[in-house]
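Internal tracking record. Fields below are filled automatically when a chain is submitted to the structure queue. Please do not edit lines marked as system-generated. If the sequence contains nonstandard residues, flag them in the REMARKS field before resubmitting.
Queue: standard
Priority: normal
Entity type: single polypeptide chain
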Amino acid sequence: MSRKSRISFGPGAASLILIVVILTMSVLGMLALMNARSGSRLSRRSVQVIQAGYALNGQAERTLASLDAIAARCAAEAQSDEAYLAAVADALPQGAAMDGREIVWSETDGYRTLECAVELLPLGGDARLRWNTHRLTAITEEIWN
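SYSTEM-GENERATED OUTPUT FOLLOWS
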């Protein structure tokens, strides 16, 4: 004699499965929402950091333009290369320094520093300045926290 047993699920089992599925979908939805918020926050911070870097770069380019104007004015007045170098060294804006033929300065916004250096080319050429250094350093812990 073989005895066959039947397993039957009543209406309570279907309700239990439905509740488990709904809870699982709710948890997955909350996790997806938290991930989207974190990604949005990170994107906003990244945009702020990039904009600040470009602002420093723009300031460095404006400083370079003023240095080029100084070099052009000094080149028009100078009789020799030595006089040209001395005139440029005397006319440098505050924050810029001359070391030989190299002019160095830095742009900062408190969290980032853009170190810049250009070479003063010899008198009589078409170009007066050439980029040597253009290095951005940042204090990331302060920015991201």
